[in-house]
Amino acid sequence: MKLDNVELIRIRMPLKGAFRTSFGSESVRDILLVHVVTPDAEGWGECVAMDNPGYSSEYVDGAQDVIKRFLLPPVFARDDVTSASLASLWTLVRGHRMAKAAVETALLDAELRARGESFAEHLGAVRDRVDCGVSVGIPGSIPELLDQVAGYLAQGYVRIKLKIEPGWDVEAVKAVREANPDILLQVDANQAYELSDARHLAKLDPFDLLLIEQPLGEERVRDHAELVKIVKTPICLDESIVSAHAAAKAIAIGACSIVNIKPGRVGGYLEARRVHDVCEASGIPVWCGGMLESGIGRAANVALAALPNFRLPGDTSASERYFAQDVTPPFVLEEGTLRVPTGPGIGVSPVPEILDELTTTREAVRG
Question: Is 163 designated active site?
Answer without folding.
Answer: yes
